[in-house]
Every structure is written in C-alpha cells, then in structure tokens.
Fold this sequence. Notes:
Low-confidence stretches: none
Order of helices and strands: HEHHEHEHEHEHEEEHHHEHEEEH
Subunit structure: Homodimer.
Protein name: Aromatic amino acid aminotransferase
Structural class: alpha/beta
Number of helices: 12
Catalytic activity: an aromatic L-alpha-amino acid + 2-oxoglutarate = an aromatic oxo-acid + L-glutamate
Number of strands: 12
GO molecular function: histidinol-phosphate transaminase activity
Largest sheet: 7 strands, mixed
Bound molecules: 4'-deoxy-4'-aminopyridoxal-5'-phosphate
EC number: 2.6.1.57
Mean pLDDT: 97
Amino acid sequence: MPRFRHILDTMPPYKPGKAVVSADGRSYKLSSNESPYDPLPSVVEAVAEGARQINRYPDPGAVKLTEAIAERYDVPFEHIALGAGSVTVAQQLFESVGEPGVEVVYAWRSFEAYPLLADLAGVTSVRVPLAGEDHDLDAMAEAINDRTRMVFVCNPNNPTGTSIRRDALVPFLDRVPENVLVVLDEAYREYVRDEDVPDGLTLYRDRPNVCVLRTFSKAYGLAGLRVGYLIGQEPVAAAIRKTIIPFAVNHLAQIAAVASLKAEDELLERVERVVKERSRVREALIEQGWTVPPTEANFVWLRLGERTLDFAAACAVEGVAVRPFAGEGARVSIGDPEANDAFLAAAKEFRG
Ligand code: PMP
C-alpha cells in the first residue's frame, strides 16, 4: 500500500454546493454564492478568441491582468499576486507561513477551506468561536501568541454574511504584532453597502503585515475559470508569487478576467441587482418570522441548529439547493428573482 500523510485520514473533505432538481424539473442553485447571471457576451467572445492560443502555455506572470488590476485599484504592480481562485492564494499563504508548530488564527465558523488548508500546510488551526454571528475580535487578539504567524479575517464572513466595521477592525489590526500576517478575505467585497465596513485596500498601505484577498468568482461571474488575487505590500506579494505552481492561472482565465474588468460597469450593475434582491429576501424572511443576521454578502444565513438538514431537504424538494452546515445552519445565496421566490416559498412552507 502506498503511504500518505497521516493528516489525510482525518482531514474534513471540502463539500462543494450541488444542484438539486424538483420532481417537476425545477432547479435553483443557491449553494455556492455564484453569480446567477450568464457570462457577458463580451467576455465569452474574448475567451473564444483566446482559445486559439491554447496550444501555448499561458503568460506565467499574468502581466496584462496584473496591470489591469493595478490600474483598477490604483495599487503598484508589485503589490499584486494572482492565483487559480482566491482559495489557491489562501493555500499559498498557509504554505508560505506553514511549519510544524506554527499557529494560524481564524474565526469559526468561517470559510470551510481554512481548516483544510491549515491541515494541508501542517500548521495548527486556532479556531475562535463567533460571538453570536460576528467575529470576536477581542478573543482573536487574545488567541495570538509567539507561535502565531497568520490571522484570517473573513469580511464579510462566509457563511454568516456579517461584517466588521472600521471602528472594530482598525483597533484589532493595531493590536496584532507586526510579525503576524493579517489576511483580510474580501471575496464578497463588491456586495458591501455599509459605508462603515472598510475596504481592506485602504488599510494595507501603511500596514506591512496586512493583505487583502479578492476574487473574480463572485461579483465578476468567473467562478468556473478560477482567478483570485492578493494585494499586499511587496514582501507579502512576493512570497505568494514564489509559491505559485507554474502557470496556475490559465490563459483563458487571464483573458476573461481582463475582459471582465473592461466590462466592469455592466457587472457592477448586476451586483446592484443582487444587492436589491438581498434586501427583498432578508425582509421577506423576517416577515415570515425568521431571524436573519444583517448581511453584506450575496447570501443570507439561517441558524437552524438541529433542523438544518431537514430544512435543506425541504428546499431540495422545491428544487432549491442551499448550503447546510449540519447542526448549525444554512447559507442561501441570492439568485435571480425567480430562484429567490422559490427559496422564499420553501422557507415559508418549512415554517408552517
Ligand atoms: N474566500 C471566501 C470567504 C469564500 O467564500 C470563497 C468561495 N466560497 C473563497 C475565498 C474562494 O473563492 P475562489 O477560490 O473561487 O476565488
């Protein structure tokens, strides 16, 4: 028998959201926080054109895309590091700090990939329970010790949708020692409308130990192509560039991301529609009697405890796929109005 690392025996598998179909053939996938819209024709055309060069390796430095991001956010080229989805950038971060004995602090529950990546990198996860549905930043600061090399702060948090405001985040950053890297995971930043939730890009400039993770998977609708990136000061970005698997960001992904930045106005208009639907869905749920934490992301969170799997099954009967976390709750993405209506009907039925 081939032998593998012991950690693989106990590592929780990542469970991706799956589509479900109702008996009468309806299917609404609200389980992966994707964009509900078809790709833009201009992006599809750029990808089709790019397909003519797929016999060649992609640009390993993804120069055009890096330049486009630098221009878009007015950040130096050297502050950007790309990856095959922001989860891969997160993996590179874990591997860049990872050594036996090293600890990484993050809130729990948060993005399911963090414990997996910690295990893979051979570092110790220090999970700090949420206070209610929010990050407990005091407890997170207290969890930092000499072994800590990195802290993940997911803002807004997946799966609760809750976000951290400037008046809480800045004092927290000030408490973190300079040799501990703080990663602000802002996968859902484009959906934030609360002006008191700070943009991480305004925070990293004068903090060498702070960096920001962003993705083209959600607001930009490129989940299927896998492009994400980090913005941080030069030594942080350089570490991530060093740890990338050669050619990880493929040619079509680079082209689609550049085309998406060109078509950003159209994409952000779609984001605006999702934000409006988010308010409608949350208000309707509250009207039905649910408790729904305020969300700045493209999903809502229902804390269902022991009823979570029953709720997911009841939604599935209506063709609505949600993301259940057994014993805790369900995360439901905001889709198009028809999908949202199907979900609201299932939620109403479940409450009885
Ligand atoms: N961070 C958070 C908080 C997420 O929710 C996700 C996707 N579920 C990611 C990172 C990774 O996204 P991607 O790899 O598609 O960029």
